[in-house]
Design goal:
single chain, 2 domains
Length: 142
């Protein structure tokens, strides 16, 4: 027969577990509020002091958050550049293929497709590797 007794919650937590519990409780509390409001920097510092956190710890977290947001903006910009490059490749090669089809004998469109395709592949590789490098750098800083 299954044990139906309720287990008592643990009474001791590591600092990491406590931080996760506080983070989750904060998320639940904020999700239940309507409408969401913004807090000033001073309100955030006051909340941190009430939780026993130093102003320096909050400043470090704010700087880290700003860096992450900057990396995310850069990633979005690079992905948009790659998507634009891919769309340009597709449209231009489509046009060149049509010209090649209707211009008579001889098949030459594969040469620009190959050359530009190599460039597009390097662009994609650079974008993905740059994003991965930034992600690893952020993880190393945490």
């Amino acid at each position: 027969m299954a044990d139906t007794r309720q287990k008592t919650p643990p009474t001791h937590f590591t600092e990491r577990e406590a931080a996760e519990i506080i983070r989750e409780a904060s998320a639940h509390a904020l999700a239940s509020r309507e409408p969401a409001r913004t807090l000033t920097r001073e309100e955030v510092l006051t909340m941190a002091r009430e939780m026993g956190l130093s102003e320096a710890a909050v400043e470090v977290a704010l700087v880290s958050r700003a860096q992450k947001e900057q990396h995310q903006r850069k990633d979005r910009k690079e992905l948009l550049g790659l998507a634009t490059h891919g769309l340009s490749y597709t449209i231009a090669l489509g046009g060149l293929t049509l010209i090649d089809l209707f211009s008579g004998p001889g098949w030459w469109v594969h040469w620009p497709a190959l050359g530009w395709g190599i460039g597009l592949a390097f662009h994609a590789m650079g974008t993905v590797m740059g994003m991965a490098r930034r992600e690893l750098k952020v993880e190393d800083e945490d």
